[in-house]
Amino acid sequence: MRILYKQGSKNLQTETLNKLGVTDCVFKHLNLGTDYNFVSKKQHHHAGFEVHFIKSGSQSYEIDGKPITLNNGDYVIICPNVPHKVTAMQLLTEKFSLVFNSDIFGKKARYYLGKTDDRIMQNAEFMLKEFSFKKQLSPMLIENAVFEILITYFRQNGFNEKNIDRQDDENATLILAKQYVYDNVESALSVKDVAEYCYLSTKQLTRIFLRYDNIAPGEFIRKERVKRIEQLIVENKYTLKQISDKMNFGNEHYFNLFFKQNYGMPPGEYKRMVLEKV
């Protein structure tokens, strides 16, 4: 038997499982070819949950008075205080065992049976490799794998998670969209360009901008372009023609018209005003 993970180990600098309300978690790997004589066949129970999933081979149990056999890929989750015992096993059976305390299951079942998800088996194999590496970050990587395994089992057996707040998701999209405008403000950006970058329709992007910033994305783009033109004029490194080209206007006439409409004066007048103050 190898204990691949023990919650609260001094080697761990983070406790991901605490966020899930899980405590006293231990993850074990058993090869019944070598551990055969150490398998308890006496009826017993645990204060917490116990999970067994078979990588290869077969093992039989009596759980709550009922005979159950697990074969390749099968799992059982035995709930707290439910009596159980091993009744038979194939000699070369390889399996993983997980014990933990948690109040996360809302159902009243005594145990849960199912087929192990491929991702769970991949995580278990990953844990074996990381355990053998014994690198500094291995315990944290192993804990993350245990976390994913538990979440998968919880979801398979009816644990009700809270939905992610859409506001957080939309705020992240707004930040992403704004950053795209900041980074590409010298381009002739359209609302469609920004929406496509965020994998949204223009209607969806507009709704998010109006909801959180009370501004339409087109107006936001215009304001940022005006700010950038102001900055370039104040720096006085370029002629107005060069600024027009740099900001990707079709021609200087359109550049002058855009600036006047959005700033209240032509760019040439603004430049003279700025230079007079220097």
Keywords:
Arc Repressor Mutant, subunit A; 2 domains; three-stranded antiparallel sheet; elongated
Can you give a write-up of this model?
- The protein is of the alpha+beta class.
- It folds into two domains: 2-156, Jelly Rolls; 166-277, Homeodomain-like (Arc Repressor Mutant, subunit A).
- The chain is 45% helix and 20% strand.
- The chain contains ten helices and nine strands.
- It has helices spanning 32-35, 118-133, 138-156, 166-183, 191-197, 202-213, 217-235, 240-246, 252-263, 267-277, and strands at residues 2-6, 23-31, 49-56, 59-63, 66-70, 74-78, 84-89, 94-101, 111-115.
- The protein has a six-stranded antiparallel beta sheet with strand order 1-2-8-3-6-9. A three-stranded antiparallel beta sheet has the order 5-4-7, with no helix packed on it.
- A hairpin with a 2-residue loop joins β4 and β5 (66-70).
- α2 packs antiparallel against α3 (138-156), α4 (166-183) packs across α6 (202-213) and α5 (191-197) packs across α6 (202-213).
- It starts with a strand and ends with a helix.
- The relative contact order is 0.10.
**Helix coverage percent:** 40-55%
**CATH architecture verdict of the largest domain:** Sandwich
Placed side by side, the strands forming the largest sheet appear as 1-2-8-3-6-9
Low-confidence stretches: none
The outline comes out as elongated
Structural domain count = 2
CATH homologous superfamily assignment of the largest domain: Jelly Rolls
Distance between the termini: 79 Å
Q: Give the topology string: H per helix, E per strand.
A: EEHEEEEEEEHHHHHHHHH
- Spatial extent as radius of gyration: 31 Å
Number of helices: 10
